């Protein structure tokens, strides 16, 4: 019935279960899955505390040096430029710094690189322009950690550089005046997984407590107003929602709801249509894509200006531009994916089956949207995908992977097969980017097919449902649901838990929805005491199961346990992920 593989999390060890015995067993298992093994850790997880959880910013290597350099720049009336990446983290991180500078009366300019023309990080043309303008201090946000040559060029021309970043440093660091990045080898700051906006927040918290704030009427806790964009960036950049990030996002979502930013008010104006209001899911799917859309379709400076404008008229105009960019992005990606699927199906028909890896491109696809196409293709076909578009005589692309296939290792192996195959490549095991000269794209396709065949072999490539725990009928109750609500905000490293359960009896089954493509069931279960309980279950876009299941069948299912409200009545509901019919 389903070819998906259900992968169950490791069972909680007895000693940790004993340590977490104040919680129901099913909740202890979920805590263990998140790396929480002590009562103290569980207490911190369930009750994020702003004052207790956020550590001293000055513990981050280079931060104090950066603060002192900014103070010096202000005293000497130096020219400052904030250079930020074009994605939501870069835009929000730059907003954190610029908002702080504005509050402290610090003069500055910002530079937003063009995603299509300039690409990621510092580039020589931008650097030459910064030098020509007579800039004294350049502050990078969400980039810079690998830009050794560009920083050297700035140093030679008397421009000092502060790097605020969170990406993994290369073996050789840029010779910047100060690098503020918890991932530096010698940085002793305990929490390493902040996004760039989070690192910027640490720096700005320190600045708002420095001598620069003494005559600016900066109130205690003023930095909290920066948390709206910090939360957005943390969610958008898919940072793990554990540790300090969990605290930053929990309090940040509160600030989003009462934000003073005119542009952000526009971005969240449609929240009334969403049952759960402003939560991490709303930010991830309704706010972050709009901020990112401008770099893909026009220019990221539009999103930056939207978050920073103090003019209602400008906020309206900028918001309309952002909305148009997002709508254009949707249409462009939808068409591109439709075209890609057409070519894929034709290739599958000719081959008599799907290849081990997808490598596909189109001259019309821009670097800004190939990652979105890659994600959709990998999701549909459950294969690693490499998707590229043309920039001059170079094909630039993005790639996404599946369980068991390390995308960076695969590209490294290809590079080992042919010298100078790539202009550049990088990323992590699940996603990455690459650039290949036009004349070498055929070689790249061949090498990647060979590597994929070797890595994936003849093993069955099937979608995986990550199941956190087997849940009993007795545990499907309001007490469990109440605890689950305390796991919010959900996100990376803290997903909404997926459970599995066996021998569920189908008491009723029907199709719902405008196109009859959703599945609705009533499931009968037996409690330990022998009593019968009925549970509602819904499977969105799972209508194909209707013909395969009939009343009184026994099924196994994976699902999330959620609260459903209809006409003022609340009930527990299983939101189905997959179904397997019992033999």
Number of helices: 19
Given the helix and strand composition, which structural class is it? alpha/beta
Q: What integer value in Å does the Rg equal?
A: 26 Å
CATH architecture of the largest domain: Alpha-Beta Complex
CATH class annotation of the largest domain:
Alpha Beta
CATH topology of the largest domain: inorganic pyrophosphatase (n-terminal core)
List the helices and strands and how they pair.
Blueprint: E1 5-8, H1 14-19, H2 25-33, H3 39-46, H4 50-53, H5 63-75, E2 80-84, H6 88-103, E3 109-111, H7 124-132, E4 137-141, H8 148-156, E5 160-164, E6 178-180, H9 196-207, H10 227-236, H11 243-257, H12 262-267, H13 280-297, H14 301-308, H15 312-351, E7 358-362, H16 370-381, E8 385-391, E9 394-400, H17 407-417, E10 424-427, E11 431-437, H18 441-456, E12 464-467, E13 469-470, H19 478-485, E14 499-512, E15 518-526, E16 532-539, E17 554-566, E18 569-581
Parallel strand pairs: 1-12, 2-3, 2-4, 4-5, 5-6, 7-8, 13-14, 16-18
Antiparallel strand pairs: 8-9, 9-11, 10-11, 14-15, 14-17, 15-16, 17-18
Helix pairs in contact: 5-9, 6-9, 6-10, 6-14, 9-10, 10-11, 10-13, 13-14, 13-15, 14-15, 15-16, 17-18
Task: Describe this entry's structure for a reader.
The chain has 3 domains: 5-9 and 465-581, Nucleic acid-binding proteins (OB fold (Dihydrolipoamide Acetyltransferase, E2P), Beta Barrel), CATH 2.40.50.140; 52-321, inorganic pyrophosphatase (n-terminal core) (Alpha-Beta Complex); 354-456, Diaminopimelate Epimerase, Chain A, domain 1. A 5-stranded parallel beta sheet has the order 3-2-4-5-6, with helices on both faces. The chain has a 5-stranded mixed beta sheet with strand order 7-8-9-11-10, with helices on both faces. A 5-stranded mixed beta barrel has the order 14-15-16-18-17. The chain contains 19 helices and 18 strands. It has 583 residues and is of the alpha/beta class.
């Amino acid at each position: 019935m389903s070819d998906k593989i259900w992968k169950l999390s490791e069972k909680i060890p007895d000693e940790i279960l004993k340590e977490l015995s104040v919680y129901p067993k099913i909740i202890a298992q979920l805590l263990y899955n998140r790396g929480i093994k002590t009562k103290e850790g569980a207490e911190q997880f369930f009750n994020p505390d702003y004052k207790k959880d956020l550590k001293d910013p000055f513990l981050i290597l280079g931060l104090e040096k950066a603060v002192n350099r900014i103070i010096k720049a202000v005293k000497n009336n130096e020219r400052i430029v904030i250079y930020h990446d074009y994605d939501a983290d870069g835009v929000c991180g730059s907003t954190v710094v610029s908002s702080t500078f504005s509050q402290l009366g610090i003069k500055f300019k910002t530079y937003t690189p063009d995603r299509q023309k300039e690409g990621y990080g510092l580039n020589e043309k931008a650097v030459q322009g910064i030098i020509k303008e007579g800039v004294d201090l350049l502050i990078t946000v969400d980039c810079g950690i690998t830009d050794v040559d560009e920083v050297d060029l700035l140093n030679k021309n008397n421009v000092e550089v502060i790097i605020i970043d969170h990406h993994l440093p290369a073996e050789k660091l840029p010779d910047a005046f100060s690098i503020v990045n918890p991932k530096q080898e010698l940085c002793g700051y305990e929490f390493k997984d902040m996004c760039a906006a989070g690192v910027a927040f640490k720096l700005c918290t320190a600045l708002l407590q420095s001598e620069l704030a003494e005559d600016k009427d900066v109130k205690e806790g003023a930095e909290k107003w920066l948390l709206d964009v910090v939360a957005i960036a943390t969610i958008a950049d898919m940072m793990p929602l554990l540790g300090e990030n969990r605290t930053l996002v929990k309090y940040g979502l509160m600030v989003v709801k009462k934000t003073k930013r005119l542009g952000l008010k526009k971005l969240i104006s449609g929240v009334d249509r969403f049952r759960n209001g402003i939560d991490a899911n709303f930010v991830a799917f309704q706010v972050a894509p709009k901020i990112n859309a401008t770099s893909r379709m026009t220019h990221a400076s539009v999103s930056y200006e939207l978050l920073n404008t103090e003019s209602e008229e400008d906020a309206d105009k900028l918001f309309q531009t952002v909305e148009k960019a997002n709508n254009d992005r949707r249409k462009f990606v939808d068409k591109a994916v439709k075209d890609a699927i057409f070519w894929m199906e034709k290739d599958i028909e000719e081959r008599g089956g799907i290849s081990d890896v997808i490598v596909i491109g189109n001259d019309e696809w821009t670097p800004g949207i190939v990652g979105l196409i890659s994600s959709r293709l990998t999701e549909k076909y459950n294969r690693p995908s490499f998707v590229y578009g043309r920039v001059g005589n170079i094909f630039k692309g993005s790639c996404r992977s599946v369980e068991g296939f390390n995308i960076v290792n695969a590209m490294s192996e290809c590079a080992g097969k042919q010298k100078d195959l790539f202009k550049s490549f990088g990323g992590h095991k699940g996603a990455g980017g690459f650039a290949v000269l036009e004349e070498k794209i055929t070689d790249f396709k061949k090498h990647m097919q060979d590597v994929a065949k070797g890595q994936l072999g003849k093993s069955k490539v099937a979608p995986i449902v990550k199941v956190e725990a087997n849940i009993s009928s007795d545990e499907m109750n309001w007490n469990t649901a109440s605890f689950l609500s305390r796991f919010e905000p959900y996100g990376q490293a803290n997903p909404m838990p997926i459970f599995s359960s066996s021998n569920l009896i189908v008491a009723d089954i029907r199709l719902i929805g405008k196109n009859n493509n959703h599945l609705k069931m009533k499931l009968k279960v037996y409690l330990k005491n022998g009593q019968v309980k009925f549970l509602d279950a819904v499977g969105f876009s799972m209508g194909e199961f209707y013909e395969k299941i009939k009343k009184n069948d026994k099924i196994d299912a994976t699902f999330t346990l959620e609260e459903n409200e209809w006409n003022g009545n609340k009930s527990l509901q299983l939101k189905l992920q997959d179904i397997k019919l019992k033999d």
